[in-house]
């Protein structure tokens, strides 16, 4: 008998008495609120009934059969109805009409041969229908037994749509407050909460100071990203080359270098070549090394081998600060990710062969660099009297790529002092236009406008992985938060079975607790 008995302690069995108008109905029903499964409650109740029969020597059977389960179900349904509709049942037993204020008045209820309350409807003459459909059992959606039944049907429907559960329940039961109860049960289901959990990123933060640092030399603050590999022809063999893109975070200009490999030394030399022509940056931002979205396998494999410490040390030699964004947070590097796509699109247009000579590739990348730097930063007006649209080349060359320098000067302007003033005035004019025309375009928040609950220590979360199915996302607990300057948490440290992970809020889906779903 021990092999099939549920693991229920003796304190779970409660002898319940329900008083109804001059009579006491004693029902040997375990406390339903201490059970989380309808089948478990049924089996426990069936065991109680078997025990009572054995004590009264009505049976010597110790195994639960279908008859015992049916008797247990009838007992539990009577118990739930006696607690939910005591006045209506008493009135029916005394053959009195129900009051108009009764919740069951329009259902014309009656008691069947087992003492269970059923609906007396208008479809009794329908052929080929079961008794449960013609005269369903009446239950109150607020009762704990009814919630266990809904939970049972919810699992049978494979945690599907609520309407599927409602349709199945209507084949046997008539439930008051059916849909609200089904929604409540579905919202409290842990598996459903995990399936529906999604990241709730905080309100979009303010732009960092390097994005707004005007009246500075271009590439004072820049972002770095890599793309490739690009095949080139060397003699009769093919080799791989990679592109290193530097973008000015303020004027949105780009500078492209070509490297033979993705070693730390190659990247440092590319940085030195760029700095020799553009000046050393004051602050460099780059990906963390493992979050190159859309990178090919070779690029992703090689970038993991970069020595971040060596890069920072080399930058510090020239008073340059190097900052790496958090792992799996490509949106933090949107300033250079978007330009990488622009460069790739332009390269597809100008690259006519699959594996050009290295000299051709370097030339094409230089032309693509000029094309990208010739793009308009602001709205392009069609009015002939309007000024030329501002481009990154205005800050690099003093003009766009295909127009002469702005202004007409005579021979009196050839003196060095006046030429310096002209250059300074042109630069100031471009920066004035940048502040008036381009800077206001950065004002609105295009997404993440709503305030969300910040992630907190102890939250149960799913680590979102866009390249994996939801069912294999890692679960973990937030053990540390990193608030930003505005106090909103945008990066968290998560403890998982595989170790400690650092992820942005956009890659973390919090699983609501049961008390939040009520």
From TrEMBL:
Query: Recorded GO terms, molecular function?
Result: nucleic acid binding
Listed GO biological process terms: DNA integration
Q: Which InterPro entries match?
A: DUF5641 (IPR040676), Integrase_cat-core (IPR001584), Integrase_H2C2 (IPR041588), RNaseH-like_sf (IPR012337), RNaseH_sf (IPR036397)
Note the Gene3D superfamilies from the entry.
Ribonuclease H-like superfamily/Ribonuclease H
Q: Which residues form the Integrase catalytic domain?
A: 214-400
Identification of the protein by name: Integrase catalytic domain-containing protein
Q: Which organism is it from?
A: Parnassius mnemosyne (clouded apollo)
């Amino acid at each position: 008998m021990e092999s099939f008995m549920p693991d229920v302690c003796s304190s779970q069995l409660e002898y319940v008495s329900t008083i109804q108008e001059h009579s006491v109905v004693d029902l040997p029903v375990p406390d339903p609120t201490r059970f989380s499964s309808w089948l478990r409650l049924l089996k426990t109740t069936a065991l109680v009934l078997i025990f009572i029969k054995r004590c009264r020597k009505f049976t010597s059977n110790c195994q639960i059969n279908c008859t015992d389960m049916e008797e247990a179900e009838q007992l539990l349904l009577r118990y739930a109805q006696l607690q939910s509709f005591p006045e209506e049942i008493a009135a029916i037993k005394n053959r009195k009409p129900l009051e108009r204020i009764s919740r069951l008045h329009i259902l014309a209820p009656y008691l069947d041969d087992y003492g269970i309350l059923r609906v007396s409807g208008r479809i009794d003459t329908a052929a080929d229908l079961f008794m449960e459909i013609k005269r369903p059992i009446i239950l109150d959606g607020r009762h704990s037994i009814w919630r266990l039944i809904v939970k049972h049907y919810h699992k049978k429907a494979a945690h599907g749509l609520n309407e599927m559960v409602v349709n199945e329940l209507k084949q046997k039961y008539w439930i008051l407050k059916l849909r609200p109860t089904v929604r409540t049960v579905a919202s409290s289901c842990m598996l459903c909460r995990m399936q529906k959990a999604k990241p709730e990123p905080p309100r979009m933060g303010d732009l960092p100071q390097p994005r707004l640092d005007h009246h500075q030399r271009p590439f004072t603050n820049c972002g770095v990203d890599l793309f490739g590999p690009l095949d080139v022809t060397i003699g009769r063999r093919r080799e791989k080359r990679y592109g290193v893109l530097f973008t000015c975070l303020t004027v949105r200009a780009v500078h492209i270098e070509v490297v033979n490999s993705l070693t730390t030394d190659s990247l440092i030399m590319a940085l030195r070549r760029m700095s020799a022509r553009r000046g050393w940056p004051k602050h460099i931002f780059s990906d963390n090394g493992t979050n190159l979205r859309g990178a090919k396998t070779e690029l992703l494999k090689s970038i993991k081998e970069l020595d971040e410490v060596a890069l920072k040390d080399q930058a510090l030699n020239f008073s340059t600060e190097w900052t790496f964004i958090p792992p799996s947070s490509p949106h933090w590097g949107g300033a250079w990710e978007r330009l990488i796509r622009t460069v790739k699109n332009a390269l597809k247009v100008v690259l006519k062969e699959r594996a050009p000579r290295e000299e051709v590739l370097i030339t094409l990348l230089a032309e693509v660099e000029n094309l990208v730097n010739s793009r308009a930063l602001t709205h392009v007006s069609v009015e002939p009297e309007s000024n030329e649209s501002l481009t990154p080349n205005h800050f690099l060359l003093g003009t766009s790529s295909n127009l002469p320098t702005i202004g007409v000067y005579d021979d009196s302007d050839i003196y060095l002092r006046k030429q310096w003033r002209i250059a300074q005035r042109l630069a100031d004019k471009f920066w004035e236009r940048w502040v008036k025309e381009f800077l206001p375009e950065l004002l609105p928040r295009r997404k993440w406008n709503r305030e969300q609950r910040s992630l907190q220590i102890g939250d149960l979360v799913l680590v979102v992985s866009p390249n994996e199915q939801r069912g294999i996302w890692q679960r973990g607990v937030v053990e540390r938060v990193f608030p930003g300057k505005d106090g909103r948490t945008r990066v968290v440290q998560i403890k998982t079975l595989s170790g400690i992970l650092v992820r942005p809020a956009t890659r973390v889906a919090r699983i609501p607790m049961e008390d939040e779903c009520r």
